[in-house]
Design goal:
Radius of gyration of chain B: 11 Å
Family (chain B): Belongs to the acyl carrier protein (ACP) family.
Helix content of chain B: 55-70%
Number of strands of chain A: 15
Strand content of chain A: 15-25%
Shape of chain B: globular
Structural class of chain B: mainly alpha
CATH architecture of chain B: Orthogonal Bundle
Function (chain B): Carrier of the growing fatty acid chain in fatty acid biosynthesis.
Subcellular location (chain B): Cytoplasm
Oligomer: heterodimer
GO molecular function, one term (chain B): acyl binding
InterPro entries (chain B): ACP, ACP-like_sf, PP-bd_ACP, Ppantetheine_attach_site
Helix content of chain A: 25-40%
């Protein structure tokens, strides 16, 4: 059996720039920057005191109100990463106009949502309860409220999606792997529709302390948070933590056409590789990233000359240079026609949600023919012919976009999206 | 309604997110108030915490209604 074609027919997002795909995208294109000092908990003793939080509010004007997405009594039982996923999945399914009611449609629709670290804070609190009050005080919801695959589980229960129910945990590559793997399930005929993406709610003391301990976070811009996430810039010193969820509705092409669904883009390529080098640092020669992108292009039946836009992993760490080197090796003489930006400069690093949110931004870059900007790129530490889209978005033709995600453990994922022209 | 009954009722309302008028003495947590088996475990924990009593598992299994809970706690505190 040949591989079936897969398209994106719906998107949903809770990002630091807004609740909703369009709210986030319009602010991203306008140069919005979500970084701010953390005020919700004590940060005085933490090396990194800033983050890109989602805009909490009453739900109007692109703000996020958890009560809009889950009843308060249910929220109490789960970590916020699950609520973010429920919100983004509700939005994505509504956007796609897909509401499976028949037995056949329900079993043909699956869910594959991942998270990098899941309910870390809740696990810590559970540990305190066990230590201070004993095992009889541990909530029956402690486990099901923290498990990473419970985002997929909860979404499937709410929408009665009875196809494949799966999850991914590959650190910062999670969201891209989820979309890639879910596309494969459709391509191979295991499902016709998949609700896929990533979710993360990592902004808490233990996570900020832990990521700072492994020297991953920016700590030199605490007094000027909006300047902290600066991919490729000489003054970058680590990533800024973000939070949120990105969910896409993936659909078999003929299934989407038969019901007249809106099509954002086709998922034409997916590559995966391992660095086999170091637990947190990428391989210095960028070979893992290179092979990952190359595999995705090969699967897509495209060459580097076909790429218009790259949504870089670009975390604002030393690794930015390694990724750029791998991209330059991949694209060769085509470098001067490619735009590549890191949207982490605006929304921070959403860890397990990053790859999914950035895949959606890549699809929208194709839809609107516009490359979102790399903020704070005042003084590039690199010389390249690739357009890094400094400061402001660039209108340009974009038919093919590549989205990169690389994670701790040396896990790499690349997605290639292409404009769908009806053929 | 006794003080214990009022406090039990408040816990049930808070945990199950139900309207106060539904929480009658004979209301079954599962059949009338929408609880599942994990909700009832959590309710029993909340009663233990609020009233400083220990409710053993076999006793918890027989606490099916608001009235059952009130009776158990009154007896335990007597």
């Amino acid at each position: 059996m040949g591989m079936r074609r897969v398209v994106i027919t719906g998107t949903g997002m809770v990002s630091p720039l807004g609740c909703g795909t369009e709210a986030s995208w319009s602010r991203l294109i306008a140069g919005g920057n979500a970084a701010r000092r953390v005020t919700e908990f004590e940060v005085e003793d933490l090396p990194a005191k800033i983050a890109c939080r989602i805009p909490f509010g009453d739900g109007s004007d692109g703000t996020y109100n958890a009560d809009d997405w889950m009843e308060p009594k249910e929220q109490r039982k789960v970590d916020p990463f699950i609520v973010y996923a429920m919100a983004a999945a509700d939005m994505a399914l509504a956007d796609a106009g897909w509401k499976p009611e028949s037995d056949e449609d329900q079993v043909a629709t699956g869910v594959l949502i991942g998270s990098g670290i899941g309910g870390l804070e809740g696990i810590v609190e559970g540990g305190y309860t066990l230590r201070d009050k004993g095992p009889r005080r541990l909530s029956p919801f402690f486990i099901p409220g923290r498990l990473i695959n419970l985002a997929s589980g909860q979404v499937s229960i709410r929408h009665k999606l009875r196809g494949p129910n799966h999850s991914v945990v590959t650190a910062c590559s999670t969201g891209a792997h989820a979309i890639g793997d879910a596309s494969r399930l459709i391509a191979l005929g295991d499902a016709d529709v998949m609700v896929a993406g990533g979710t993360e709610s990592p902004i808490c003391r233990i996570s900020l302390a832990g990521f700072a301990a492994c020297k991953a976070l920016s700590t030199q811009h605490n007094d000027n948070p909006e300047k902290a996430s600066r991919p490729y810039d000489a003054d970058r010193d680590g990533f800024v933590m973000g939070e949120g969820a990105g969910i896409v509705i993936l659909e078999e092409l003929e299934h989407a056409k038969a019901r007249g669904a809106k099509i954002y883009a086709e998922v034409v390529g997916y590559g995966l590789s391992g660095d086999a080098f170091h637990i947190t640092a990428p391989s210095e020669d960028g070979d893992g990233a290179y092979r990952c992108m190359q595999m995705a292009l090969k699967r897509a039946g495209l060459t580097a000359a076909d790429i218009d836009y790259i949504n870089a992993h670009g975390t604002s760490t030393m690794a930015d240079t390694i990724e750029l080197g791998a991209v330059e090796r991949l694209v060769g003489d085509s470098a001067s026609k490619i735009s590549m930006s890191s949207t982490k400069s605006a929304i921070g690093h959403l860890l397990g949600a990053a790859g999914a949110v950035e895949a959606i931004f890549s699809a929208l870059a194709i839809r609107d023919n516009i490359a979102p900007p790399t903020l704070n790129l005042d003084n590039p530490s690199v010389e390249t012919k690739i357009d890094l889209v400094p400061h402001v978005a660039r209108e340009r033709e974009i038919n093919v976009a590549l989205s990169n995600s690389f994670g701790f453990g040396g896990t790499n994922a690349s997605l290639v999206l292409r404009r769908y022209n009806g053929d | 309604m006794s003080d214990i009954a009022e406090r039990v009722k408040k816990i049930v309302i808070d945990h199950l997110g139900v309207d106060a008028e539904k929480v009658s003495e004979g209301a079954s947590f599962i059949d009338d108030l929408g609880a599942d088996s994990l909700d009832t475990v959590e309710l029993v924990m909340a009663f233990e915490e609020e009233f400083g009593v220990e409710i053993p598992d076999d006793a918890a299994d027989s606490i099916l209604t608001v009235g059952d809970a009130v009776k158990f706690i009154e007896k335990a505190q007597a």
